[in-house]
Design goal:
Helix Hairpins, Beta-Lactamase, 5-stranded mixed sheet, alpha+beta, 5-stranded antiparallel sheet, 12 strands, elongated, 4 domains
């Protein structure tokens, strides 16, 4: 770098003017001493002042030139070099010249090394970012799911090829936004609803006509939307995932059809088993062992029959074929009837089963068979998991405009991450796979909601579980 450029870089306010002020101040001290020495020799004040001025000028120029060449100029060149280094994108085109005093040369050498290492580190980081971005780009582009990222205003920040094709967006441009840029008639309503929703997590099933044309069943896509915070923009963004779940839906329908076939085929033999077991109990000689065997047969048959009833009820409710047979009911008598039926089983497992009578008569309208099945499922579930020596309590009572039922146990409890899943079909913890199909609680939820009621669970690991549901006293069932 030439001297003119460096001199210009150091012009203006900065360290150089202050440095020269120090130089002139330092030079003035010997000049004053020199003037004082002339006084005893009879030289007048004028001569002394002139000599002092000349000596000060010469001394200042010499000292200034010395300090400028040894310290100020190298520092200014180093500052200008650093600015050029930043302007050039952290690339050192040529090392700074090491001249001046040894201290200045050492400083310039350290600055050169610092700029070299900083440039190398920045290049390495940029290469890493580009490499990682390339890997992520390749991964996202190869997956069959559509992936889209937008900001809170709907502007599309990123979108892979699959998402562009599914949503009917010709290409990703700065003007592309949701839902305005979506041209697919199948996805437009779902995307519009997602962008208008304030929910952090939203899942929608979207039926999409098959590209082969009429006569082919439509495909089913699951649109999953999740909000997150854009760290660079300090505002929320949204990621949208479009997944083809046609195969999963077909498997679910096949499973449902299979269960329906089982229920219809097993009801007749189960009825025969239960009927002949009851006849055998009346005809055979009474012995403790025989009575115990017959009781076990009846209990297992009723349990299996209840599971079949759950499957049938779920199928009817999902199809909208379930018709409630509403009757006036007494909540206290309902829970007492269930307690009496399961009392022997609880005693056999050494579990305390209680159903305290409500403080006042609690009447409401509902389907007796369906609601009894709900309480039976909740109690049966509690009996499965409550250990010997534990307790289960059934409660009922009045609340404003509704009747409240509670089944409380002292079992192991439910982990917090599983609470939202217990009422879903086929949802079971891995260690409980052998204890049923996972349909009982799903049936309970559907039956309660069919009565326009609510159901939920309160639980902590190690502190048992409390299942609660409410039924409105009045109102038209769904």
């Amino acid at each position: 770098m030439d001297g003119k450029k460096n001199a210009g870089a150091c012009a203006g306010p900065g360290p150089a003017p202050k440095l020269y002020l120090v130089i002139f101040t330092a030079a003035a001290l010997p000049v004053a001493v020199f003037a004082a020495c002339l006084s005893p020799f009879g030289l007048g004040p004028t001569a002394s002042a002139a000599a002092a001025a000349g000596a000060a000028l010469l001394s200042s120029l010499a000292a200034g030139r010395l300090v400028s060449k040894g310290l100020a100029d190298p520092v200014c060149r180093a500052a200008a070099g650093i600015r050029d280094f930043i302007t050039a994108g952290y690339k050192l085109e040529a090392p700074l010249l090491k001249d001046g005093w040894p201290e200045s040369a050492a400083l310039v050498s350290a600055v050169n090394r610092l700029m070299l290492e900083l440039g190398a580190y920045r290049a390495f980081q940029l290469n890493q970012v580009v490499d990682e971005r390339g890997k992520a780009q390749a991964l996202i582009e190869t997956i069959p799911d559509g992936v889209l990222l937008s900001d809170d205003a709907g502007k599309i920040i990123y979108c892979n090829r699959a998402a562009l094709e599914l949503l009917g967006i010709p290409k990703l441009s700065p003007a592309a936004a949701l839902p305005d840029s979506v041209t697919s008639p199948a996805f437009l309503p779902a995307v519009t609803r997602i962008m208008a929703s304030a929910e952090k997590l939203l899942k929608l099933e979207v039926p999409v006509p098959h590209p082969s044309g009429a006569g082919v069943p439509p495909r089913t896509f699951l649109a999953i939307s999740s909000q997150f915070l854009l760290a660079t923009l300090k505002r929320p963004g949204r990621v949208l995932l479009l997944r083809d779940i046609t195969t999963e839906k077909e498997m679910e329908n096949t499973k449902q059809t299979f269960f329906q076939m089982i229920t219809h085929d097993m009801r007749a033999p189960l009825s025969s088993i239960l009927g002949y077991a009851q006849c055998l109990g009346k005809m055979a000689a009474k012995t403790p062992a025989g009575d115990n065997c017959l009781e076990t047969i009846e209990r297992a048959t009723r349990r299996l029959n209840g599971m079949i009833e759950d499957i049938l009820n779920i199928t009817k409710m999902e199809r909208g074929d379930m018709t409630l047979r509403l009757q006036d009911m007494d909540a206290g008598k309902l829970i007492e009837r269930v307690r009496e039926f399961y009392g022997p089983e609880a005693a056999r497992k050494k579990i305390s089963l209680s159903a305290p009578a409500p403080s006042e008569r609690t009447e409401f309208g509902g389907d007796p068979e369906l609601l009894e099945r709900v309480i039976t499922n909740l109690l049966s579930n509690a009996l499965k998991f409550t250990p010997s020596g534990g307790s289960i309590s059934l409660y009922c009572g009045s609340a404003p405009g509704e009747v409240r039922f509670t089944v409380q146990d002292t079992g192991p409890g439910i982990p917090a991450d599983k609470l939202a899943l217990v009422f879903e079909k086929y949802a079971q913890m891995e260690e409980h796979r052998s204890l049923g199909f996972g349909l009982g609680l799903a049936m309970c939820k559907m039956a309660v909601e069919l009565h326009e009621g609510r159901i939920w669970v309160e639980s902590e690991p190690g502190k048992g579980s409390t299942f609660i549901f409410t039924i409105p006293r009045t109102g038209t069932p769904a």
